[in-house]
């Protein structure tokens, strides 16, 4: 008649519990990084759409809302009429700089010429692409326009 467990059985159970713990830890951490990337993308799109909506409403007396990326500072800024709001992105996330993106008040028209970040804006031009990179992968936010106006903001 044998009572208790042998040393080998005990070590085997401890090793198995350790392996399961490591697998669970990396699974949870991977999910957390994916969520951080998705949240950074959603916040960026939300802030871009907010600036677009404020400009389109014509509620401010300024001509534009300007989006500028500060890659070394790990933030982006949306500004109008001397006031600005900066948004920091999460640790471990990087974003590419698309250059200035401007959202214009349609009630102002084009006389005088709208200005984007202090320079005359003659056309929205090509689609602007912001790439968001994190440990969990890459997300892309695209801002498309026509003439002076942004027509679509979408994430891929």
UniProtKB/TrEMBL annotation:
InterPro entries, per database record: N_methyl_site (IPR012902), Pilin-like (IPR045584)
Keyword check for Membrane: yes
Keyword set includes Transmembrane helix: yes
Keywords assigned: Membrane, Transmembrane, Transmembrane helix
Gene3D superfamilies assigned: Glycoprotein, Type 4 Pilin
Residue stretches spanning the membrane: 6-28
Origin superkingdom: Bacteria
Protein name: General secretion pathway GspH domain-containing protein
Organism: Candidatus Gottesmanbacteria bacterium RIFCSPHIGHO2_01_FULL_42_12
